[in-house]
Write a structure and sequence with these properties.
It is a single chain. By secondary structure, this protein is an alpha/beta fold. It folds into 2 domains: 2-246, P-loop containing nucleotide triphosphate hydrolases (Rossmann fold, 3-Layer(aba) Sandwich), CATH 3.40.50; 252-308, Roll (CBS-domain), CATH 3.10.580. Helices cover 38% and strands 24% of the residues. The chain has helices spanning 42-49, 72-77, 94-104, 109-122, 127-130, 140-152, 170-186, 198-204, 222-227, 232-238, 242-247, 252-255, 274-284, 304-308; strands at 2-10, 17-26, 31-35, 57-62, 65-66, 79-82, 158-162, 190-195, 207-212, 215-220, 267-269, 288-292, 298-303. The strands form 3 sheets. Strands 6-7-8-3-9-10 form a 6-stranded mixed sheet, sandwiched between helices. A 4-stranded antiparallel sheet has the order 2-1-4-5, with helices on one face. Strands 11-12-13 form a 3-stranded mixed sheet. Helix 3 packs across helix 4 (109-122), helix 3 (94-104) packs parallel to helix 6 (140-152) and helix 4 (109-122) packs across helix 6 (140-152). The protein is globular. Bound molecules: adenosine-5'-triphosphate (ATP) and magnesium ion. Magnesium ion is lined by residues 42-43, 84, 162.
């Protein structure tokens, strides 16, 4: 669990607060997405959690310990960190990059080697191909995966990720986000994820903290943020299509019925989200879709009214 209590950061004495009396609780094993306009204080907030920056005022507690009372170097060994712009060590191979923290923790060579292979597999890269290369020999998307693998290397209970998928094209980004979500289902972590991308915040965050001028203006579930924006700023930030974005939080399974659809109905899989299902309805110019399972057999129908009822 991460707790921030009345935390303020001024980079210059008496200057403006970059983070302003901010309080935030990230419960154990959950992901909080920090989102807001450029310069609102997201990176500053994150870097105070692993003490790359010291707060001017306030208290930060990570897993029961006040971070100002712990040796910052030791603290960071137990907090995975993906920095904005990846930040791999350029003079080290991929293997050495991933092994950096385990090595500091004194792991044996054999343990490090098997963990490295396991992690590359986890982020969908081939160890034989990757391990001896240097960061400059990888694509941007591959580098970002290595950044995520390195942060996970020592299996830290806490992960801080600053725009980890920022440099990746939208299609690959969605795939990486899905992979990351699956990783988190397998290995539960307490995560703070900074992003500019509301869809990413919705997809990965159990909660979303929307920041403005160093303050949190709303801290809520994605559903609550999208259905009940706290003020005009949040409403504007989440956009006029918030009701459609919200549909992506629900799947066809949640609202389908078991009636037989009309023969000629367009098909949607039961695991699809309702935003995609609505798009299919619009494309098919129909107010009902046939729901099929992954094998293609019909399981029921999805009506427009059912979508609108969520
Ligand atoms: N080292 C520093 N010295 C002085 N001011 C700083 C320093 N680092 C950041 N700031 C200021 O603090 C404010 C918050 O910066 P921060 O990097 O936390 O923003 P951010 O929300 O992460 O922005 P972005 O989305 O662009 O990454 C900004 O006004 C920035 O100019
Ligand atoms: Mg930033």
């Amino acid at each position: 669990m991460i707790t921030m209590e009345h935390v303020t950061k001024r980079y210059t004495e008496g200057g403006a607060a970059s983070v302003d009396d901010l309080s935030l609780v990230v419960p154990e094993g959950t992901t909080t997405a920090l989102i807001g306009p450029s310069g609102c204080g997201k990176t500053t907030t994150m870097r105070m959690i692993n003490r790359l920056i010291d707060p001017t005022e306030g208290k930060i507690i990570v897993n029961g310990e006040d971070v100002t009372r712990v040796d910052p170097v030791k603290l960071r060994r137990h907090i995975g960190y993906v920095i904005q712009q990846v930040g791999l060590f350029p003079h080290m191979t991929i293997a050495q990059n991933i092994a950096a923290v385990p090595k500091l923790l004194g792991w044996t060579e054999a343990k490090i080697r098997s963990r490295t292979a396991e992690l590359l597999d986890l982020v969908g890269l081939d160890p034989d191909e990757m391990l001896r290369r240097y960061p400059r020999q990888l694509s941007g998307g591959q580098r970002q995966r290595i950044g995520v693998a390195r942060a996970l290397a020592a299996d830290p209970p806490v992960l801080l990720m600053d725009e980890p998928f920022g440099a990746i094209d939208p299609i690959a980004r969605t795939r990486l986000q899905d992979e990351f979500r699956q990783i988190l289902q397998r290995v539960r972590k307490t995560v703070v994820l900074v992003t500019h991308d509301l869809d990413e915040a919705i997809r990965l965050g159990d909660r979303i903290a929307i920041m403005k001028n160093g303050k949190i203006v709303q801290y809520d579930t994605p559903d609550a943020v999208l259905s009940n924006p706290a003020d005009a700023f949040v409403e504007n930030f989440v956009g006029i299509d918030r009701a459609i974005k919200r549909l992506s939080l629900f799947t066809v399974k949640d609202v389908m019925d078991s009636l037989a659809p009309r023969e000629d109905s367009a098909k949607v899989t039961s695991g699809s989200n309702l935003r995609d299902a609505l798009a299919l309805m619009v494309a098919a110019n129909s107010d009902v879709l046939a729901v099929v399972d992954d094998g293609g057999s019909v399981k029921g129908q999805l009506t427009r009214d059912a979508i609108f009822s969520v």
